[in-house]
Amino acid sequence: MAIELRVPTILRTYTGGEKAVNGDGSTLAEFIDNVNGTHPGLKERIVEGEPEELRRFVNVYVNDEDVRFTGGLSTGVKDGDVVVVLPAVAGG
């Protein structure tokens, strides 16, 4: 098994239109790096800065748990987990 990333429509240009992609890692940061290796540009839409942290207007969940409350990029992930990225959308 692998870890699944569910990709919102706005980021699917980085995944060739795929709604979900798989990757590996033991932390969310490692997983994002792994997925970015096969889908370049995706990481920059989720993570920013030095030290790296989640972008302010991007929500990330691991198995329905908001990672801002479980360790951010240090949150542990394992085979079978589902990571969901929800960028904020503005407009009116």
UniProtKB/TrEMBL annotation:
InterPro entries per the UniProt record, alphabetical: Beta-grasp_dom_sf (IPR012675), Mopterin_synth/thiamin_S_b (IPR016155), Sulfur_Carrier/Prot_Modifier (IPR052045), ThiS/MoaD-like (IPR003749)
Domain of life of the organism encoding this protein: Bacteria
PANTHER family: SULFUR CARRIER PROTEIN CYSO, SULFUR CARRIER PROTEIN SLR0821-RELATED
Name by which UniProt lists this protein: MoaD/ThiS family protein
